[in-house]
């Protein structure tokens, strides 16, 4: 039986929910008979250093307490190892947890479920995306949505999600499609005008927006959703349908499947799991069974 586990906590996730979630999650693990070590990083770099040290030191599981940012950080420590990952999802988006069917914003229930999964060896191997040395679990976003992120990240006021609503309005005012070159599996090349291109290992981003609604975490392939050259009016019509995944049948939307994709475009930043990767061009690879997850 797994006996010693490590919690890595983002105290600021979900406007402070991360710090409050650590205690009930840890209590659930201890009640199940586990020894728990909790680590906090002074910043993302320090947190990752501590997480990697815990994995290299032989912890029996790494439990990320926070949102998608903390889940992404934990992936950098456990991907390619056999150390199980648990998710106590208490952030704003929690898309990786949602895709895995895990509880959201209920740390005690999440802790009990992970403990039961570890004790019963109910572990699931799932695919991850990789760009260079960086791993991601959900979606690599580029285009209109990443431009909104860029603008929102530059804004000092207002705070919270409202600034991204304002950033979206500003980007809509200046909206135009972007010239892309997309290469699939080193063979198929498309040069198109696109509003956005999303490379999905998982199905959703942005807190439940099912941009790659049919993506499968265990098929060894990305679902690549391309929203083509459309008008501002069409974009406003299509975008709300993303929450239910019904946008995929729109004539301006196409979906491709590939294990490797290269995206080339000028002035576009790629974001994976909501974290900036850097400017395009970027090449993403789908790595089968790259992480082992404790699934209740």
Please tag this protein with its features.
single chain; 296 residues; alpha+beta; Tumour Suppressor Smad4; 11-stranded antiparallel sheet; 4-stranded parallel sheet; 8 helices; globular; ATP binding; nucleotide-binding
How would you characterize the overall build of this protein?
The protein has 296 residues and is of the alpha+beta class. It folds into two domains: 4-121, 3-Layer(aba) Sandwich (Rossmann fold), CATH 3.40.50.10330; 136-286, Tumour Suppressor Smad4. The chain is built from eight helices and 15 strands. The chain has helices at residues 13-31, 44-56, 68-78, 95-100, 107-119, 144-154, 162-173, 232-238; strands at residues 4-9, 35-40, 62-66, 85-89, 123-131, 134-136, 139-143, 178-184, 188-200, 222-228, 253-258, 260-264, 269-272, 275-279, 282-294. Strands 5, 6, 7, 8, 9, 10, 11, 12, 13, 14 and 15 form an eleven-stranded antiparallel beta sheet that branches. Strands 2-1-3-4 form a four-stranded parallel beta sheet. Strand 3, helix 3 and strand 4 form a beta-alpha-beta unit. Helix 1 packs across helix 5 (107-119). The longest helix is centred in the first third of the chain and has 19 residues, at 13-31. It is globular, with a radius of gyration of 19 Å. 47% of the residues are buried. The model has no long low-confidence stretch (mean pLDDT 92).
